[in-house]
Design a protein that fits this description.
The complex is a heterodimer. Chain A is α/β, with parallel strands linked by helices. Chain A contains ten helices and ten strands. Chain A has two domains: 50-125, 2-Layer Sandwich (Alpha-Beta Plaits), CATH 3.30.70; 139-298, Rossmann fold (3-Layer(aba) Sandwich). In chain A, helix 8 (233-238) links the parallel strand 9 (228-232) and strand 10. The N and C termini of chain A lie far apart (71 Å). In chain B, strand 1 and strand 2 (38-43) form a beta hairpin. The longest helix of chain B has 29 residues, at 276-304. Chain B is globular, with a radius of gyration of 23 Å. Chain B contains 20 helices and 15 strands. Helices cover 42% and strands 17% of the residues of chain B. The relative contact order of chain B is 0.12. In chain B, helix 8 (255-270) runs antiparallel to helix 9 (276-304), helix 9 (276-304) runs antiparallel to helix 10 and helix 10 (308-329) runs antiparallel to helix 11. Classes of the chains: A alpha/beta, B alpha+beta. The interface between A and B is large, with 76 and 79 residues.
Amino acid sequence: MSSDNVARNNLLNADRSKSNKKFGDILGYKIETIREPHINTTASPAARGSVSLVRSDSQSLDSFDKIRQICAPNAIGMTSSHVSLDMGKCILCGRCRDAAPDLFELKSNFALPVKERADLVEQRNFEITSPDVEKIASHKAISSELRDKISKTLGRSLEVREVDAGSCNGCEVEINAMNNPIYDLEQYGIHFVSSPRHADVLLVTGPVSRNMEIALKRTYEATPDPKIVVAVGACGCSGGIFGDTYATVGGVAKVIPVDVYVPGCPPRPEAILYGLLLAVNKIDKTSIASKSISATLND
Amino acid sequence: MVTKEKTEKPDGVPPLENTILDNLGNRVREIIALNGNELHVHLVSKDAIPEACDFVSHVLKAKLATIICADERKLCGSFTLRYVFEKIGEDDLFIVLTAKVGDTEDDAKEELGTSFPSLAFQIPSAALYERDIKDMFGLFPAGNPDTRQLVLHEQWPLGIYPLRKDFVRDTKVARTDGKYPFTKVDGEGVFEIPVGPVHAGIIEPGHFRFSIQGEYIINLETRLFYTHKGTEKLAESMKLDQVLLLSERIAGDEAVANSTAYCQAIERIAKVKIPTRAIQTRTICAEMERVYNHLGTLGGMATDVGYGFGAARLNILKERMMQLNEKVTGSRLLFGVNRIGGVGVELKEDKLLLVARATSEMLQDFERVISALRSTGSVMDRLQGTGIITREVATDLGLVGIAARCDGVDVDTRRDHPYAAYGSLRPDVRYNTPLKRTENEVMLQKRRGDALSRFDLRATEIRDSIGIMNELMANLDGNGELTVAIDGRLRPYQHALGYAESHRGQTIHWVMIGEDCDSLFRYKVRTASFVNWPAIEQAVLKDIVADFPLVNKSLDLSYSGNDL
C-alpha cells in the first residue's frame, strides 16, 4: 500500500468512527421528511438534471451538426437559422456537453415539466443574444401551491394510478421513491391507488410498447372523468432512446391524450411532483365546465 | 466461419479440447479459442447439436448460459446458433457450441420452414431461448413441447421475424387476431385468477394466471414481454457509444451491471486492458448498485409482509444511498458510470470520504432495522417456508444470483469468471480466513431456498458489498487514467461475450461488431431475470395467493430486463 493510500485509509477510518449516531435516528423520532423543501434539498450539485443551449458568439452551425450525430435519442435539431434542443427526448447522458462545452450546459436543476409538448423544445436563433430568464422551480412554492390546489379542487386528495407502458423501471424506482418517508407524497394528499377506476390521474411511463398499447388504452377508458394523464420520463414524452420502432409506439401522446409532460431520464421525484401540480392546475382550469362536480368535491 | 483470429490458449484447455474431440469426434469441424476464456467448438451440422450439448452439459458439467442466434446469411449463407455453456467453479471457461442452421440446401429439404433440434427435454432451461429464437428469427425448435408465441404477442402475424436482417427496424406491423392458449387446470373447485398486465402496485407490467383451489395456488403461468421494446434490433442501428447508453436502460436499476457487461465485451474484442483506476471505480459503482437495490428489495419484502415500520426505515436507507449515488456519479440510478474503455466518473478524495461516511452510517442503521425485523414474529412467520425453490428446480432451470445461492447452488459470476476488480478479491471479502469460509459454506448448505433465506442473503450481501467497497477505496489508484482508447482496434464481425453479476445475478451479453467497426452486427442480451422468471412458477406452488407478492418481491425480478 502506498503512503498516499495509508494516509487516506486513516482518514476514512477516522471519518467512520466519527459517525456514531444515536439509536433514535433511524428507529425513533428523527425522521428526515422534507417538509419545507426547496430545490436543492436532495439534488447534489453534481447531478445531471437538465441540459440547455449556451448562448455564445463562437457557435457555428458546422460544429453543431457534428454534435447532433452524437445524440442517441436525436434530441438536437437544426434548421438554417435555428438550433433546438428537445428535453422531451434528452436522456441526460451529457455527451453533447462533453463534446462541445461552448454550446451546451449541464445543470443540476431538473428540467421543468410542461403542459404542451412543444414547450420542452428549446429553440435558439443564432442572432439573438439576450439571455433567457432562468426558470428555477422552488420546491417550497410547488409544494404549498400543490397542497392548496388539491384541497380546493379535490377535497384534499388526488388519486393516482401508475401505468408502466414499457419503461426500463428507472421511472418506477423514482415514483416509488416519492412514497418513501423522505418525499412522503401523502403529506400533500396524493395517494397511489390500485385501480384506474379509483383514479383522478394516470401517471404513465415508458415509450408505450406495442404489447402494452391496448392495455394502456383500456386503462384510460376505465378511468372516470375528469381524468388527467401525466407522461413521465423521456420515454413517456417522446419514446426517448427507444424511439419509434416495430416494438414501440414512441410516446404516450400517440395513444392517449396527454396533459402534462415530465422530462428526465429518469425524472427526479421533485420533478414528478411538479408534474402532478400541473395536473391539478389542469383540473382546476377545465373543471370540466361542470361546477356541480367541484361543488360536490369541495363539500 | 467469420472470425479467423486465434489467440493464445489458456492453460488447461488443450486436454479439454482432446476430451471434446475424443467424444464428439467427427461431429466437430474445428475448435477455436477466443478472447482468453471462450472455447468455440464448431459442429459439422445442426443434427449434432443434441449430442454435443448433452455431452458438454452432463459430462463436462457445464451450465447452459445462453443460446445466441444471429442472422449471418449475408456473411456465410446461414443462421448461426451459438450454445454458450459456462464452467462453474475452478475453471474460468465458456464453451460455445456453434452450428449453422438454414443453409440453402436445408431450406429446400424442409417443408415447415427451417428448424433446429430442441434441447428442452435434456436441458429444460433451453426451452425459453428456443421460443425466443422462433419468434425473432423464424427458426423452428423441433421437439420443443411449447411453441406458443413468447416475445411477440398473439397479435403479431406469423412469418415476420424482427431480428432477421431483411426486417426494417421501424416497420409498423398490422395487428392480427390471435389467441394465446393458457394452460387449463380442470377439477372441482378450481378457479382461475387473471392478474395484470397493469398491476395494483407501482411495478412493471406482466400477466399472471393463477389456478387456485381454496386459497392454495395449484398452478401459476406467467406471461411476460409486455415491455418488449426491440432493444436488440435497435442496437443494430446505433453507434457503439450509443449502445452503451441503451445498455444502461435495459433495466434501469441494473445500469452498472449491464453497461459493464457490454463494455467488457467490446474491450475484450479490442484486447485492451483498462486502467486500474477505471477497474476499481467500475467495481465500486457496481457494489453501490447492489447495495441500493438490495435495500429496496428488503424494503419491498417488509411492505409485502405488512410491516410498514421496517419498510419505511429501509426505504429511508435506500433513498440515502440513491442520494449518495447522485453525489458521486451525477445520477441517482448510476447512469453514466461506464464508458467503453474505462469509466466516466472520477472518484476523488472528497467523494471517497462521502461514500465511506454514508455507507458506514447506513450500515449502523441497517443492522438495527434488520434486527428489528428479525425479532418480529409476524415478519418471520410470513418469510419462513414461503416460496421454496428446491435445489433440483434451481439446477434444472439453471438459476443464477441470489435465487440460486439460496438453494445451495453456489454460482457467482464475480468468482466463477472474475472480471473488473473481482480477480483480486473474493466477492465475500469478509470471509477471509479458512474458518470463516467454512462457516460461510455451512450457511450456504443450510439455506432452505425460502423467502427468509433470500431475505438473509440480501442482508449479508449488503454487508459484503460495503466490505468490498471499503477494500477497493483503501487501495484506489488516485491518479491514473480513466479511459483507454479503443479506436482502430476493432475489426468487422469480431465477437465476444461480456458478463457481470448484477444484484439479480449473472447478466451476459454477446456482441458482434458491424461492418463499419462503429456499430453492432448483433447484440444479444440475457439478463438474470430471463433465467430466473420461470422459477417463480415453481416457487409459489403450495403457497396461498396472498403470499405471491412476497415471493415475487423476494426474487426481485426485472420485467424490462427480461422483455428487452
